[in-house]
Amino acid sequence: MDYFALILVAIALAMDAFAVAICNGITLKKVKIGHALAFGLMFGGMQAVMPIIGFFLGSLFRGYIEFIDHWVAFALLALIGGKMLLETFRAEEADDKVTEQMISLGALFILGIATSIDALAVGINISLMSWDIWVSALTIGAITFILSFAGVFTGKKLGMRFQKNAGRLGGIILIAIGVKILLDHLFF
């Protein structure tokens, strides 16, 4: 298991949640620890559960796609990373409308699902790479918790500009990991 790659994947997956937490921090007049804990627990929990679901789905199909698994991993990571990059170029007005709804628990749950869909696809990749799913899910969830918790507090200081850069960084990291997996299988 490549722990360095796992940490990079976890950080990349956490960038969407981190960006949403920053946006919420920006909208709050006073940031309380309860807000940060709610974001950290919801986003960290969702990011931990989704790869497990993806892992078991991927395990069902592993025998059929083992000979092209590196291409599948590359394609999924490149698509997810590309989607993250494209989303950062959306109009700021759309982001403002979403951030106004982030305080309620129901909206937070929906955002938790929305920001963890990428982790479902990564879970499929984890099954193809034969990584330990429990270590992977725990790492992804813990890093997402930490970044989401911190994102709420840093939102006031960093502003909307950083939110876009966080999404871009996450997209670039996912694409780079996909390229690394492809090159490792093709040339090493």
SSE map:
Elements (H helix, E strand, L loop, with lengths): L2 H25 L5 H33 L3 H19 L4 H8 L5 H25 L3 H55 L1
Helix pairs in contact: 1-2, 1-5, 1-6, 2-5, 2-6, 3-5, 3-6
Helix content: over 70%
Oligomeric assembly: single chain
Number of helices: 6
Beta-strand portion reads: under 5%
Based on Cα principal axes, name the global outline: elongated
Structural class: mainly alpha
Number of strands: 0
What's the helix-strand series? HHHHHH
What are its keywords?
single chain; 188 residues; mainly alpha; 6 helices; 88% helix; elongated
Descriptive account of the structure:
This protein has 188 residues and is an all-alpha fold. Helix content is 88%, strand content 0%. The chain contains 6 helices and no strands. It has helices at residues 3-27, 33-65, 69-87, 92-99, 105-129, 133-187. Helix 1 runs antiparallel to helix 5 and helix 1 crosses helix 6.
Summarize the structure.
The protein has 188 residues and is an all-alpha fold.
